[in-house]
Design a protein that fits this description.
About 25% of the residues lie in helices and about 25% in strands. The protein has about 325 residues and is an alpha+beta fold. The strands form six sheets. Strands 6, 7, 8, 11, 12 and 13 form a six-stranded antiparallel beta sheet that branches.
Amino acid sequence: MTSLSKYTTLKVGGPATRLVHARSEEELISAISTADDAGEQVLILGGGSNVLVSDTGFNGVVIRVETTGNSYEIDACSGGMLQVSAGDDWDEFVQFTLDKGLANLESLSGIPGTIGGAPIQNIGAYGHEASEVIARVRVYDRHEKKVKTFAAADCDFSYRSSIFKKSAGRYVILDVTFQLRHGVESLPIMYEELASALGVKIGDRVDTKLVRETVLKLRSKKGMLEGEVASAGSFFTNPIISAQDAAKLPETAPRWNQPDGRVKTSAAWLMEHAGVHKGDALGGAAISPKHVLALSNSGDATAEDIVKLARSARDKVREVFGITLEAEVAFVGIKL
């Protein structure tokens, strides 16, 4: 049996009963259908950047999505429509779009994982989200046993969520179509940290390649680039709380007003002010010395080490602020 630690960025996880490498859409659908018909448990795995697998592994079939390839139409005036396979690398795709003179993905540079994970998590960074540029998502519906296409309006996108996440396991992403703008001017800079690094004001637009270069530097400083630290990136999502609860936080706590009247605050700020420190360790797991949100494997961590460290951080925040952090990471065979 193959150890799943080889296929996750946290480098932990026990064996799978069976591992299938699906390198084409036909292989992917066939593998899923065969397993479903046989009543086997199925785990769909992309880049393994947002998952924590238990030390006991997975008692079933792990299907690794390795499909690649894209098709695109680029117009000098209107921009481009790019259909990209689920197994393609996300950051390589971002670089590809910039090389083609297309804008709107520059702020999402350096995010680990594959294209298929983008709509599930509605990945985002530095004030922008994938949902802003996704036109449609093609999936295999395991319930109806057929291929379906979701327009963006039907994907139920919200902060780090979508219909695909809410219906976990039902839909397997086959490819995603992005609608991008032709040009070298970025989307408006909406995040203070990025604006400061660029030396511009909130709302300004900057050369797309400069934005990418700056975002990659910022992510590297935080240990958030794949390969630098064995982590899953941000382990917790930023909490969205009621205005009343936000008013109870210290004045220095970050606040971002939401369209529905609620307020988003910073998980990292809450952790740091609840007594969670960079470098804190438990067994082989550690809070990254670069960023408090990155729970990492220092080399010999078990999945249990990492989840115990995460519980400790979550409990400290709840005790001090009365806010329960939610994990961004998906758990397989283990619970927070």
